[in-house]
C-alpha cells in the first residue's frame, strides 16, 4: 500500500510538471542528449581552444543577458543592453548547451561601454565577479596581466573573441599568469 502511495505521488508530480509545458511553443530540441531546448532565437557558438585544454566544436546556446532581457530579435541582442546605471554592455554567449571537446563550457565575458559594431580591446572587457574567461568543467581560465584579448562585434548579434594565455589562478592565490593557460577563439552568430 505504501509503495502505491509513493508511486502515485511521484506520478502526480510528473503530471503537474508536464502540464506546465506548452506543446504549442516554437522551441526546437537542439541539444543532442541533454534534454534542453532552445527557442528559435538563439546563438550558434563555435569554440576553438588549445593549450592546457583542447576543445573545438560548435553548439547552440540560449540568448545571453546580464539583466534578464527577453530578446525578440538578433538586432535587439546585437544592440546590447544597459545596466541600472545606464552603462551599455554586450554579453557574449554564456552557456553552450552541448559539451564541446567532451567538456561542459561556460563563457564569462562582456563588452563594457558597448556602442555597436566594432573592435573592443582587453581594457573594455569584463565579467560579473571575475575577469573575463572560460570555464571548462568548472576550472576557470581567465584574463591575466599577460593575456591578449580582443572582441570584434558585428552589431547584428554575432562576433569573435580572440585571446591568448587565459590562465588559472596561481597556486599562491595571485593573479597575473603562470600555470596552465589556454589560447584560441569563440565565434558566435545570432539565429532567428
From TrEMBL:
Keywords of this entry: Signal
Which residues are the signal sequence here?
1-21
Query: Keyword Signal on this protein?
Result: yes
**What name does UniProt use for this protein?**
Lipoprotein
Species this protein is from: Paractinoplanes bogorensis
Amino acid at each position: 500500500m505504501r509503495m502505491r502511495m509513493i508511486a502515485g505521488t511521484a506520478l502526480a508530480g510528473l503530471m503537474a510538471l508536464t502540464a506546465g509545458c506548452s506543446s504549442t511553443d516554437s522551441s526546437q530540441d537542439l541539444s543532442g542528449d541533454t534534454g534542453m531546448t532552445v527557442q528559435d532565437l538563439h546563438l550558434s557558438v563555435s569554440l576553438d581552444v588549445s593549450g592546457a585544454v583542447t576543445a573545438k566544436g560548435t553548439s547552440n546556446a540560449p540568448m545571453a543577458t546580464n539583466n534578464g532581457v527577453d530578446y525578440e530579435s538578433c538586432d535587439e541582442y546585437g544592440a546590447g543592453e544597459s545596466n541600472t546605471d545606464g552603462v551599455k554592455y554586450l554579453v557574449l554567449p554564456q552557456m553552450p548547451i552541448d559539451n564541446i571537446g567532451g567538456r561542459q563550457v561556460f563563457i564569462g565575458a562582456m563588452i563594457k561601454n558597448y556602442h555597436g559594431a566594432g573592435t573592443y580591446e582587453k581594457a573594455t572587457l569584463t565579467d560579473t565577479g571575475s575577469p573575463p574567461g572560460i570555464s571548462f568543467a568548472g576550472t576557470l581560465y581567465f584574463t591575466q596581466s599577460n593575456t591578449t584579448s580582443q572582441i570584434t562585434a558585428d552589431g547584428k548579434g554575432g562576433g569573435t573573441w580572440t585571446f591568448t594565455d587565459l590562465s588559472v589562478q596561481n597556486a599562491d592565490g595571485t593573479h597575473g599568469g603562470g600555470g596552465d593557460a589556454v589560447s584560441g577563439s569563440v565565434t558566435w552568430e545570432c539565429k532567428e
